[in-house]
């Protein structure tokens, strides 16, 4: 038995306070990670608020973990103690269903989320199934790797899954924690990239992140002027927009892909979609193989998140910084190493 020191909330919207729990014997396919840094995703805030009515308390957030392997199970052969690794949204899969056997572990109906029904990475140690743990490339800075494992993976996965071509036109709706990484990945992929943003101050930043041009999302005429331009629109916002206006920007066979967790009906008009053979879709993160591909691609093309860092004992300050909308653009907690 080993004691884990973490930060947990005892109720919805409660402060994160010091919390300890015991880890039992490690399973043959499991690994323990000594946490060095952990990104904060908006999903951590949603879970803390119990916005999805699935949070179990005491609740330890954190699913953008980077650290070193501290212990391995007897059947683990692809990881070793001391390896720099990362852990994202999933901490385990059944490994036997058709989705897992087909390489689509992220669609496994029995997949275990790192922070749903489990203790997350705002801690000194986290345990996970070894298949969900990715070895970090040597040239990737571990302190900023965490946000790639969830936010970065979410925006990279559609480029792979939908066979996006380097000659395609891609629009990114919302330039925040997800959107700024989407701009960087799509630009490195070779696409012509357009940023949709409602904040004038972000237009310059969007261009710096990789956008070739920008569109003011509060200007209906500017949006209408981009009719029939895009092969793919990636929406990274979690608020309701006039989705039919965005559907009108797609080329025939184009796709609007939803990455932000919009919880209200989209209210789409079917007829324009039918005649243009248009698609609306969504997806959860990616499989272990796609995570490895993303990490290799990010390292090769120097795609890194813009991060702000807080010591882990200032976790409540960091969560409030996210809640207030001040994050630019991903927050990372760094554990104080002795």
Instruction: Work out the radius of gyration.
Output: 20 Å
Which superfamily, in CATH terms, is the homologous superfamily of the largest domain? Answer: Medium-chain alcohol dehydrogenases, catalytic domain
Mean pLDDT: 96
What percentage of residues falls in helices of 4 or more residues?
Answer: 10-25%
Q: Could you describe the largest sheet, including whether it forms a barrel?
A: 7 strands, mixed
How many strand units?
17
Number of domains: 2
Look at the helices and sheets and give the structural class. Answer: alpha/beta
Oligomer: single chain
| Unreliable runs | none
Which fold does the CATH topology of the largest domain refer to? Quinone Oxidoreductase, Chain A, domain 1
- If helices are DSSP runs of H or I spanning 4 or more residues, what is the number of helices? 10
Cα separation of the termini: 22 Å
User: What coarse outline follows from CA principal-axis ratios?
Assistant: globular
Strand content: 25-35%
Q: What's the SSE pattern?
A: EEEHEEEHEEEHEHEHEHEHEHEHEHE
CATH-level-2 architecture of the largest domain: Alpha-Beta Complex
Look at the structure and give the CATH class of the largest domain.
Alpha Beta
């Amino acid at each position: 038995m080993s004691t884990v020191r973490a930060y947990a909330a005892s109720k919805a919207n409660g402060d994160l306070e010091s919390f300890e729990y015991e880890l039992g014997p490690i399973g043959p396919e499991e690994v323990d990670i000594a946490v060095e840094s952990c990104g904060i995703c908006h999903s951590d805030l949603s879970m803390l608020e119990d916005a999805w009515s699935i949070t179990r308390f005491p609740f330890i957030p954190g699913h953008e973990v980077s650290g070193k392997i501290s212990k391995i199970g007897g059947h683990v052969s692809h990881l070793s103690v001391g390896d720099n690794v990362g852990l994202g949204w999933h901490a385990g899969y059944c490994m036997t269903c058709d989705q897992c056997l087909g390489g689509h572990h992220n669609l496994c109906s029995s997949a275990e989320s790192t922070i749903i029904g489990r203790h997350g990475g705002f801690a000194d140690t986290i345990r996970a199934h070894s298949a969900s743990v990715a070895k970090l490339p040597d040239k990737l800075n571990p302190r900023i790797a965490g946000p790639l494992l969830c936010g970065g993976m979410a925006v990279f996965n559609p480029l792979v899954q939908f066979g996006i071509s380097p000659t395609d036109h891609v629009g990114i709706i919302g330039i925040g924690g997800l959107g700024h990484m989407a701009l960087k990945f799509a630009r490195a992929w070779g696409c012509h990239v357009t940023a949709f943003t409602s904040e004038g101050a972000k237009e310059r930043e969007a261009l710096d992140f990789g956008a070739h041009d920008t569109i003011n999302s509060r200007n209906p005429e500017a949006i209408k002027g981009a009719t029939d331009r895009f092969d793919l629109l990636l929406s990274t916002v979690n608020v309701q927009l006039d989705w039919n206006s965005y559907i009108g920007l797609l080329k025939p066979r184009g796709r609007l892909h939803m990455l932000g967790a919009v919880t209200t009906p989209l209210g789409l008009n079917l007829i324009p979609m039918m005649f243009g053979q248009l698609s609306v879709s969504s997806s959860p993160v990616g499989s272990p193989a796609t995570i490895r591909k993303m990490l290799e691609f990010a390292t090769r093309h120097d795609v890194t998140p813009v991060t702000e860092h807080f010591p882990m004992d200032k976790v409540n300050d960091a969560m409030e910084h996210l809640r207030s909308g001040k994050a630019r653009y991903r927050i990372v907690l760094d554990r104080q190493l002795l």
